[in-house]
Amino acid sequence: MTGPDGEPRDRQWLGRYGEQVAAAWLRAHQCRILAKNYRNKRRGRRTGEVDIIARDQRLLLFIEVKTRHEHSQVRPLGAVDKEKQRLIERGANDWLRRLGTRQLPWRFDVIEVYVADGKPPRVNRVRDAF
CA–CA separation, 26 vs 56, rounded Å? Predict the structure, then answer.
């Protein structure tokens, strides 16, 4: 992706953009965003993270967002490896602990965002991804 000045966008910009697209897509599908970029830390180190926490009626969603260029050789879902899953699970467990209940129905989703210059982004939600 390139900016209006023709300069290429960096990975951080692409990730933030994908998260904005995913949040807008979720809102358009009647989900309520509860938190974005939720991070819990213990003893000064990162122990868990969730890109988006949302509600779809009574269902609590812990969502990882992965953004790739449309012609990428690697599917975004493939980047959510076991270590990344553990970080997301730890973040979700911390969120549930703070709520004081695990009685809510919840699941882990991945939202894949595909981007290309001059085209609107394409979104694919992988429900119950892990």
Answer: 9
